[in-house]
Amino acid sequence: MESAKKIIVNADDFGYRKNVNEGIIFAHKNGIVKSASVLTDRDAFEDAVFLSKENPGLKTGLHIDLDTFIDVNKDVADLMSVASFKTPKPDKQQIIDAIDRQLDKFLNAGFKLSHLDGHHHAHMHPEILPFVAQKAKEFNVPVRFFEWFYNDFNLAQQMKQILIDLNIKFCPHFINGWYWGNVDENFQLAELMTHPGFNEMWREFETAKCCDPVLKNYLDKNNIEIISFEDI
Question: What is the C-alpha to C-alpha distance for residues 216 and 206, in angstroms, rounded to an integer?
Answer without folding.
Answer: 14
